[in-house]
Fold this sequence. Notes:
mainly beta, four-stranded antiparallel sheet, globular
Amino acid sequence: QVRLVESGGGLVQAGGSLRLSCAASGRFFSSYDMGWYRQAPGKERELVARISTSGGSTYYAESVKGRFTISRDNAKNTVYLQMNSLKPEDTAIYYCKAVSGLLGYWGQGTQVTVSS
Length: 116
């Protein structure tokens, strides 16, 4: 069992930056691939970025490439999402997810609002 708690969301002007954190409790954090997802009002939840267990492999949605960076610190059981050059269309609830095989665990989400 993994419990995930996101933090770092808030209100920011377009062009600004935020850094989201997702702290995990439980065992074997380093054995989980980690992902950041987001869900805007009226839209489906979408994958934003994903990072492998060691951090050696990452994936980004086209809409955030070059602006967002996912990273992890396995010693601190934490995954991060650095978001730069934010746009109003990045406004959403951001969730982290831990995945190992068929097992998946979600955090409760953190709101990110980007004003124009």
